[in-house]
Amino acid sequence: MSVIVEFFAAPDDTSSASALRSGPGRAFESLSFGNFDPEEAVIEWECLLVGGSFEELVEAGEPRVVAGQDDDECVVFALSPRLSAALAGAERSKLAGVAASWVALRAEDGEVIDAEVADVILGELAALVSSARRQGRSVYCWVA
Fold first, then answer.
1. How many other β-carbons are positioned within 10 Å of the β-carbon of residue 76?
2. Taking the model in full, what pTM does it have?
3. Cα-flanking dihedrals φ and ψ of residue 12, to 5°?
4. Of 47, 82, 110, 121, which alpha carbon lies 20 to 30 A from 95's?
């Protein structure tokens, strides 16, 4: 799997959609990762942080696509308000536990994610979400 994943803070859906073709670049505060399915991950993280089922979140339309479609090479989607609030409010120990649980979930499906990398992803994403919320912004994800 070779996927570019960039989480970024933007003022609104319209602004975030401008990142569709080339990514957030320098226009937005962002974090770059790779080689995992971020759409699946944000649903799993929300389930692990605040409960609910994967199926319920998918049926509710999570994650909400802002730009691009399944047949496009790139997509921009929004982190849910519930996930954003949970990430912003989570203590470091809680994030570490979620990271470990996420690694175990992915391993059940035969996907290997390094535990330290998972911990970094969730820690840095929580910091980005906290910063974005203080600025009245939301967090989005660009996938290429």
1. 25
2. 0.95
3. -165, 175
4. 110
